[in-house]
Sequence to fold (107 residues):
Amino acid sequence: MVDTKDNSNENPTPTFSYEKDGEVVEVDANTFSDQGKIQFARVLDYQKDLGQLQGALIKVQLDIDDNANNTERRKKWILDNEINKTEEETEVEEAEVVDESGEETKQ
Fold:
């Protein structure tokens, strides 16, 4: 009888891959000695950690870029709205305002 069910995901075989003479060689890690299995497990842990660190590094770089962009945007706003005010903006600030009592005040 031929079994067409794909069992590859049920019990994946731990495989150590390396390159030899331009070809990728795969070795079943279950054939390693006890010490070899420990080293293989450490390699897997390091690969997992490396992926997480690279993801964190990307997030930190994006945060740095966002911070730098926000800093520049706020500096520009201060220059445009506080340091280099135009006459028109100054006049608007001194416009008369009528409060609830009906009295006119300058602001």
Helices lie at 34-83, 87-93.
